[in-house]
């Protein structure tokens, strides 16, 4: 009969019924009894091991050993399980003992630790487990969970380096089913541990980008599990969160657990000297069926279980030793005895050891094998293959024959050079073509070769006579010949071909056959054609550039003659020096001007067009003439430059230029001036030289609307004012301010006439900009009188 209180359950808002409380207490008590029973079952094997030790030492029976264990535990104040773990640790000499000797291992999870009892309990659980699934649960419960881990995966390595999930704990069964098999080549933490043969610690799986069981977050530790020098699986431990670098003792603990897992995954192998060892017998029969030299090797293990050498168990019937020794001297010897130079990084022993440990097959088309012959190293090239078959290794090599090597080199040379050889028998008509020749003719392999007599029918019509001339030279006159022609393939494609052939004759001069080679020179032909066209275009470009430079030079010389006589007007002396660039291709757009206006004022200007060539020269003409016309309006220098900026923007092909413009009034000896991005004039007075202030003014053509600042300077008798372009001072390796300072120093040191001053400045200029140079100098005369009104 069902209790109605239990069936109905507690009221939503009322107190819990007494029956439910009693049921919950019963469930909790039963759970505690189950946990206690599980702990007792896990520790039973450990206690039995300790009782066995007491039976051996005390020479007593099982019952007496149990009473002694309880009595000793009571005297020590510990539980029988803890005492059993201490007894086993003191007696055993294994990796687990080395780990538990530290007694307490700190982990990344605060407050958690792993005791010797837990490690020995995990060991007993692993040894007693009948399958990998129970092994994984035991490792997680007794060793990994105290370290903060939440999941364990136990992988078994296949002969093809694949991974199979043989046991797991703390992982969803559906996810485990998806990860049941990992094929070779998929990079996972377990794969990396297997291939690199060491523990892989991954602090944060999400940052590593590696896929793995148990999600994509948290920390991972993948420890290779091996026995007898062979890796047979991987123990992977999962943490739910990123982990810090683990201390060495934690690493040693997990390595000890992986070693226990390896013993559980694989049963003890049969002795190597057993006559019934099926693996070696099957591999021996396989090696004897090969046409290449083969060795069957079995590992020799050291005291610590690592591979120290390999024993040559069998050599097959086709065995060829690189040193020329018979197989009987090799069989039965160790690898280092037979081939002492196999040791070393990247040598044969390391390759064999890696294949044996990981199961990953090694294959290379060409490696160097070195052996001692009368204490002299002999190196040969060979194709090498190494594979693991259960507990043995098969090594197969093929010594590279000199004839085969030369044939391969010839084949590669023909392929790279697009060359195909042929031979034609005159008596039988048999034709032999190399493989490359079919490709040159656009024919499939196995198609009927084209005889020389039919070659004219496969070439361009314009080249038929050249091919017939070649055939006459070969077949009638018995002389070697060559020809170039256009071969028409069956698909209509045309290739440029060169043929070189020679007749084969006997002692009596009879023709036995013809041999020779075809070469595809299409790429060379089109390269030469493109080069020829480029040379033609280059010659035309050079001719056009030279013509433009000649016209620019002529235009420049017509407008701006290099030698200009000095001008004397109203007591003002004006001298000009213009020095064109030495290179025609750098003809610039420098200009100068000095004219007397109807108002009896004198306009002086200097400018520089950006760029070189004919465009710069024509732009110079436009701006110079435009400034002359603007000067007739009576406007000031600033206004004239504003209008000249509009000319540069609108009436030219959008050129850029710098300029400085001045108006000198002879009655007042006042010079009004303005500049557009140009270097300010230089004033030489009483043995000193200085640049005028840099007025505001952007270069011509830069913006649509621009205004230019004006300034005035009162000139005194014997003053010299210099207007110049940057070709006078500019150097590529020196700032422009330093160049101006050098000009001022040279000008201040000079004593003499205006013409001598300009000549001196040109002679001492160290400019290297390959640009035109223009200098305009004005000097106020001593005692000059103003012009009549």
Q: What is shown here, in short?
A:
It is built from 23 helices and 29 strands. It is of the alpha+beta class and 789 residues long.
Characterization of the model:
Keywords: Hydrolase, Transcription, Transcription regulation. GO terms for molecular function: phosphatase activity; RNA binding. Residues 27-88 form the ANTAR domain. Residues 481-533 form the PAC domain. InterPro entries: ANTAR, Bact_Sigma-Reg, CheY-like_superfamily, GAF-like_dom_sf, PAS, PAS-assoc_C, PAS-like_dom_sf, PAS_fold_3. With 789 residues, this protein is an alpha+beta fold. It folds into 4 domains: 129-265, Beta-Lactamase; 278-400, Beta-Lactamase (2-Layer Sandwich); 418-520, PAS domain (Beta-Lactamase); 552-780, 4-Layer Sandwich (Phosphatase 2c, domain 1). Helix content is 38%, strand content 26%. The chain has 23 helices and 29 strands. The strands form 6 sheets. A 6-stranded antiparallel sheet has the order 5-4-3-8-7-6, sandwiched between helices. A hairpin with a 4-residue loop joins β23 and β24. α2 (18-58) crosses α6 and α6 runs parallel beside α11 (248-265). The radius of gyration is 50 Å and the shape is flat. Residues 1-13, 92-114 and 268-276 have low confidence and may be disordered.
